Amino acid sequence: MRPDFQTLDDMARRLMDALPEPLKAAPEEVERQFRSILEKGLSKMDLVTRDEFEAQKKVLERAEEKLKELETKLNASE
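Now predict its structure.
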């Protein structure tokens, strides 16, 4: 999965806002470091996008429906 860079930027900004004032002296550098750390950490996780998740959810729902149909046919033929 490719990280959502808008979300990473938002997370980095939130972390930056949470820093004590003395550490905010070099905001661009700190934010860049936060973003880099977040990007590396998230890339190691086995994550999927919301779109990928929803697509797989639909596939599973269709498979479950088909299974129910087949079970009904099987029970009717017995």
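Residues 50-77 form the longest helix (28 residues).
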